[in-house]
Design brief:
The complex is a heterodimer of chains A (132) and B (125). Chain A has no helices and 10 strands. Chain A has 132 residues and is mainly β. Chain A has a single domain, classed as Jelly Rolls, CATH 2.60.120. The two termini of chain A are 19 Å apart. Chain B is globular. The termini of chain B are close together. The chains are: A mainly beta (132), B mainly beta (125).
């Protein structure tokens, strides 16, 4: 079975009087579905959205990764993830998000929309296929 | 003003690859921030109905970066509701983490699979 290895580093030398240095690994194992891709978001936030991740395709704990590779600042350059008509994450140009997701246990897909139709996003989901 | 540097490394490499080629990507970003930090707390709430408010929307601006990590090494799981009644949860098993720009439209609530689950979390804005 496949594995996904993740590491996050958060560092700051001037936010607080003591330097911040977080370094955390995470390994997701027993994967049998997933990968990385780049696509356009064709629907405009607040008007419409399109499906990004189908919740029935993954068991609880699937890891969702989304990156906005754009360079346009402000609302026009945003990429938004929506669930049940509510925006859960908004990514400005250069921002990313990564989270283990409830997937099929919860009952809603993750949808995507953009500040401007045609904005690009890089995305990936890594998980285990539900048993039938 | 201060700088928060974030680095994400994502890899799935041979022989434990998820697709037939290796994946290895790194994203580095310097974020300008004025407030934030990292705290550790213990979560005793074990049902959604008794979930505690971890982050209050009204205290944070749109785009606040949120970091969450389950500090437990075995068994205990944390669940986060970020959108009120919508069916969406972030689920952290032992030593798992999440990072995302938060819309700060609704509070983030958390509960655990067992009382005494340790959570590390941070906000940056």
């Amino acid at each position: 079975m496949a594995e996904l290895n993740l590491n996050i580093k958060l560092t700051s030398s001037d936010l607080t009087t003591d330097s911040l240095s977080i370094d955390a690994d995470m390994t997701i194992s027993s994967l049998n579905v997933g990968g990385l891709a780049k696509r356009v978001a064709l629907k405009v936030t607040g008007v419409d959205h399109e499906e990004l991740v189908e919740e029935n395709h993954y068991q609880e704990g699937a890891v969702v990764y989304v990156n906005n590779p754009g360079t346009v600042t402000g609302a026009a350059g945003m990429i938004s993830l929506e669930v049940g008509g509510k925006i859960i994450v908004s990514l400005a140009a250069g921002e990313w998000a990564l989270f283990p997701w409830s997937a099929g246990q919860s009952g809603d897909d993750i949808n995507v929309s953009a500040g401007t139709a045609g904005n690009l996003l890089e995305w990936g989901v890594f998980g285990t296929k539900p048993t039938t | 003003m201060a700088t928060l540097k974030t680095i994400l490394a994502l890899g799935s490499t041979i022989p434990n690859n998820v697709v037939s080629s290796s994946l290895l990507t790194t994203i580095t970003k310097n974020n300008t921030v004025t407030a934030g930090g990292v705290l550790a707390i213990t979560i005793d709430a074990i049902t959604e109905g008794t979930a505690i408010t971890l982050l209050t929307a009204g205290y944070h601006p749109l785009g606040t970066k949120v970091y969450l990590r389950n500090l437990e090494t075995t068994a205990k799981t944390l669940k986060f509701k970020c959108t009120g009644d919508v069916n969406y949860e972030i689920i952290l098993k032992p030593l798992q983490w999440a990072f995302f720009p938060w819309t700060a439209a609704e509070d983030v609530k958390v509960f655990a699979s067992a009382a005494g689950t340790r959570l590390e979390y941070g906000t940056f804005s």
